[in-house]
Amino acid sequence: MPAELKAQTKLEHHIKYSPVPRELRLWGEMIVYSIIILIVVSAYYFATNASFSERILNRAVGDVALLLIGFSLVLSSICYFWDFADKYIIYRKHLGLVGSGYMTIHIVFSILFSAYSPFPGYYLEDKRIASFIGALIATAIFVLLAAISNRFAIHEIGATRWRKLMRLGYIGFVFVLFHFGAKGIQYWTPWLTGKSESIFPSFSLIVFMFGVGVVILRIALWFSTSQKSKLGN
Ligand code: HEM
């Protein structure tokens, strides 16, 4: 059974046998959880930096976007291999869309904050252009997926094709990892090689490792489903 179909079956099972989830409550919960995550991430920056600038705020918002979108994507893999997270599958759409909301705020900050001016000249400099192109591709993919995350679109596109289209999210996610990994690596290397004075890693390294975990689990899932379909033939 394709991974997304199994996740969808679990979602439908959960909706059928548990008290009817009220859509508004789920959105409310997700927004509250996301604010808690933003506070925790900001506290990490507070603890590890001398000051909390507008630039750090933008980084924290970008981190929350990546974490929420990553949780949304990884739920399919986790629910395929294990059962412990089945009850959280109902949040998949809300995680992805609230994450896209933080992504939008991050992009607006990245255009408006003076730390990144002039726009777009700042991003078109040689050392930033590759990261910027990665960000643009990821943004285009996530905007498309957000636009089709509704019943009307599923009905119009057809469930099977819609599920296949949603897999684009992983490609967008890899582009986001490239977007900040390309710049971050120079700051992470001293910590990874034990040459950093700080015992705490940069938060971008933590989210990058999380992102790599999301991608590895998806590859494991793809491997497992393709092995099963080969055995079935
Ligand atoms: C055109 C779109 C985008 C622009 C212009 C942009 C701009 C930026 C900039 C300037 C930074 C570095 C911040 C700094 O060091 O001061 C950054 C980092 C980051 N961005 Fe974006 N971004 C875009 C899209 C995205 C998207 C789509 C996501 C995720 C869904 C994202 C997530 C991140 C993350 C996680 C970081 C690293 C934050 C950290 O240092 O921990 N960005 N972005």
UniProtKB/TrEMBL annotation:
The chain crosses the membrane at residues 26-47, 59-82, 94-117, 129-148, 168-188, 200-223. This is Ferric oxidoreductase domain-containing protein. The keyword Hydrolase does not apply. Keywords: Membrane, Transmembrane, Transmembrane helix.
